[in-house]
Amino acid sequence: MSLNSDLERRYEEYLAEVMEVHRARGVAVAVIDRAGRTLWQKLAGYRDAERRLAIDEDTIFGLASITKSFTALLMTQLAERGSLSLQDPVSAHCPSFKDTGPNPVRLAHLLSHSGGYFPLPRTTLEPVAKELGIPLDGPEDPAFSDELARAGVDRVAGAMSAASERVGEPGEYMSYCNDGYGLLAEVIHRASGAGSYAACVRREVLEPLGMTRSSCEFLRPAQDANVAKLYSEAAPEGDLNFYRNAFVLMGGGAMKSTLADMKKYLRMYLNEGAIDGGGRLASARGVRAMCRPRIPTRSQQFYGYGLSISFLEDVTVIRHGGSLPGVSSHMAWSPELERGAIVLCNTEDVPVSLLADAALRLSMGLDPRPVSRWRSCPWTDATLRAACGRYESGEGADVLVERDGEGIAVTNSGKVMEVLMVHPFRAVLRSGLSETEFRLYFGEDGEVWGARLGDRIVKKRS
Prior knowledge:
- By secondary structure, this protein is an alpha+beta fold.
- Helices cover 29% and strands 24% of the residues.
- Helix 4 (125-132) packs across helix 5 (146-162).
């Protein structure tokens, strides 16, 4: 593909701006077509900023929640083989999960984050491993530990079963639930016979695609000579602690990969499950089912199974991102364009979805820089009063909304946000170049009971 040199320069300027504003140490970006050809690629910054070590196609990055697309693909495979139905109750495959509502939570609900759960405190790997006496630097990588997985399932399923407050009935609202994808990892573990989620994803996805430098492991990536250091608030100088904030169950965020490997993964989706040699990871119908809008999330965005569906210019874009300490990742593709983009970054809280969309615009011959689609829409006095209060979640979100003249002031986990009211009960919160939607939910009494903060619904506490 021949690119407009002026547009390419504008992309590089925009990339530099994002990296400067959000202190990103290293970024790898690529656009590929359905044939797997690299249409455009940019490697910026460093995998190790202190030693000024460059990034290449084989540098290992964390993927964080892009892992959920792998989990949904494995579930699709198992459903197509008749090992399970996505309409099965979760309790049928995970006995320690106890339904407490009148309607069962089904596997499909967990796949679309619509089980009805507010964000729960994270059950992370390190403390559980320490409690069980499982060494994190022993001969066996914790990703393959049955003992750790069993303990993780009991804890996660117990927390979900005991949740006294619910967003709504299963299938009513989308609210991001990492724990649900943790339980799906256990369902895959039980149904696949692979011994562990990590072994199953290796056997069923990574090996068929030739993704030789990708895994759910913790030890091998950290010891690799070509791995990107993880830069975060907890580790501003960078480290290789892939355990930090890692979920005890692998299905929500354990994958690590490279730009070269992710091109192979993205190419499979662009070909609706088909891979080289005439094989398939899933049927075209199964991949389309993953990409089908199941439930609304943010403005002009829906969630399917392990993938989000949104719109860019006049085309549909399927996408998923990921964020963990030292990880910001995003993949996006358009069936109409027959091309997609991958962005991998070794710094937390970088708005890499903007870079992925900009790369797709560049490939379309459009100005890569985003143009705001928001229009100001002041809230009524009654809405302003109802919105004020504190919103909290088990994952640590703490949002304070206060009256500020004709508008509101919002502090998100101690950070003062720029606020733009864009709908009678929706606002956009800005920090740097990042935007987060904030949408109010009202009960039948007219009072606000919660708010959408990005992909999560958080409870109003006061």
